[in-house]
Amino acid sequence: MKFKGQKQEQAQKGQGITENDVMKGNQPIYPVERYVTIGENKVLFGDGSHIIYVNGKYRGNDEIGKLMYDFSCTNPDDMIYETLAKKARYFKQDEKGVAAMCKIMEDMRNEAEFNKAKRMAIRMIKAGKMSLEDIADYTELSLDTIKELASQSIQLA
Question: Which residues of the chain have pLDDT under 50?
Fold first, then answer.
């Protein structure tokens, strides 16, 4: 299951802090187990996967509640956990930390833009109306990347 704002990779790997209490059970965490039905019995699937959703709205007086509170703070001075507050101050107030965060955000933006261009290229390849060279030109992806995507598209078909 994938929740709004959660990346597909996070859902597959079993990671997820959800912004809201998506399960609506007012619990701090929701462990999810996979079962297989054999006849009328449900047996734990046992594939080693562990899925846990953390309720980002939870504010209990325990470690998870305090951590979720800290994650929602915009001012590090309002945080409970000093280790997290110190890191937040570094990325928000220290010149080197701000530069590092700007670089991280720029890298994320570039990755998102690259992935969007790849998705567009795949659609164009599947449509079969343009040459690979033209697709590379329009998407601003390298011809080698377009050829790799075309090769993968053929293998998946």
Answer: 1-3, 6, 10-11
CA-to-CA distance for 51 and 71, rounded, in angstroms? 21
Closest by Cα among 97, 101, 153, 105 to 125: 153
Which residues, including other chains, have CB under 8 Å from residue 96's CB and lie 6 or more apart? 90
**β-strand partners of 157:** none
Please give the C-alpha separations between residue 60 and each of 22, 35, 55, 76, 80, in angstroms, as whole numbers: 17, 30, 11, 19, 13
Q: Give the pLDDT confidence score for residue 22 in this predicted structure.
A: 87
Q: Element (H or E) spanning 146, and its range?
A: helix 143-156
Secondary structure of 73-96 in HEC code, one letter for each residue: CCCHHHCCCHHHHHHHHHHHHCHH
pTM of the predicted protein model: 0.62
From residue 79, alpha-carbon distances to 19, 62, 97 in Å are 18, 14, 18
Predicted pLDDT of residue 7: 56
pLDDT of residue 1: 46
Q: What's the pLDDT score for residue 137?
A: 96
